[in-house]
Amino acid sequence: MTDIAYVDQNTRRSRAVIAGNTVYLAGHTADDRSANVSEQTRNVLGKIEALLNECGSGKDHLVSVTIWLASMDDFAAMNAVYDAWIVPGRAPARACGKVEMALPDIRVEIIATAVLKGG
């Protein structure tokens, strides 16, 4: 049986779940939702990087990223931030699409999966 660790959970979700050698992150949105999509993306990626590090992983160990945008008009601006953040030569599998967000001021939500370092 695999041990499972639930990180920063409440009754509805965990910010991350570590199962075996894999770290599964919940969808993350920006703290400042009044910001433009570039700033929201930068904030979300910072939160993801910090949480991965806390869990014993890192952005260099990402295996999959799913990006939801409120508008595909934000695709280029989001990609400019994302492309600068990704470790060269270690780009994870990725999907990106437009969805109706839970709140109208959320421009981007990102979900990620990574493996543990040294695991």
Automatic annotation (TrEMBL):
InterPro entries: RutC-like_sf, YjgF/YER057c/UK114, YoaB-like. Pfam families: Ribonuc_L-PSP (PF01042). This is RidA family protein. It comes from Tanticharoenia sakaeratensis NBRC 103193.
